[in-house]
Amino acid sequence: AVLLTALHTAPFLAVVGIPVLRLQGLDLPVATFALALVFQLTAFRALSRNLAPAATGLTDFSSSVVRVERPSLGRWELSTNRSFYVAALVVGLAVLAAVRAPGRAPLGRALQALGDDPVRAAAVGLPVGRYRLTPFLLAGRFPALPGGIAAALRQAVTPETFTIFESLNFLAMA
Question: Hey, what's the torsion of the CAs at 120, 124, 125, 127, to 10 degrees?
Fold first, then answer.
C-alpha cells in the first residue's frame, strides 16, 4: 500500500500540473505552495473525516484520526522497527536509483535540453509541454513514498500530521 501511494498521486498531479506548468519563474513554486496549503486546509480534512471511523462523544480531533497498519511484503512482516527500517532503506535506495537512472537516458538528455533552452528544444522537435509535465509528475510521486512510510511508522495520521511544513521537511531531506 505504501508503494501504491506514489501511483495514486499521478492523476491528481496531472490535473494540477497541466495548468500550473503554464507559469514561469517564481510564480510556479508559489502557486504550487498555495495549492498545497489550500488542499491541506480543505480537502485533506474532509478526506480524513471520511476515512476515520465514526466516533461518538469524542472531540473533533480524535474523530479525524486514521489508523494505518504496518505494511507487509509477502511473508515478510514489517511489524518490528528493525524490519521496517530495512524496508524503508531499500525503498529509499530504489528511489535514489530511479532518480539517477534517467540522467544519461534519452529522457534525461531531453530534460537537460529543455532546461538549457526551451525554445531551442521546441525547435529541435521535443514536445515541450509533455517534457515539462514529466518531471512534475515524478517529483510529485517521490514525496508520496516517504509520506506513506512515515504514516505507516506512526500507525495513525490526522490532517495535522502532514502539514505543508512537514512536506517541506521531506523535500529538504530528499
Answer: -30
- The three-class DSSP label of residue 60 is coil
Locate cell 521546441: which residue? Answer: 122
| CA end-to-end span of the chain | 21
- What is the rounded distance in angstroms from the CA atom of residue 65 to the CA atom of residue 63? 6
Helix (H) or strand (E) holding 82: helix 81-100
What predicted TM-score, i.e. pTM, was given to this entire model? 0.63
CA-CA distance, 80 to 82, in Å (whole number)? 5
Gap between the Cα atoms of 16 and 34, Å rounded: 12
pLDDT exceeds 70 at position 56? no
Rounded Cα gap, residues 66 and 49, in angstroms = 8
Cβ 65 vs Cβ 58: under 8 Å: no
**Residue whose C-alpha cell is 509533455:** 130
State how far the Cα of 48 lies from the Cα of 56, in Å rounded to an integer.
16
How is residue 61 written as a grid cell? 480531533
pLDDT in tens, 67-77: 777 877 777 87
Placement of cell 474523530 in the chain: 63
Side chain identity at 5, as an amino acid letter?
T
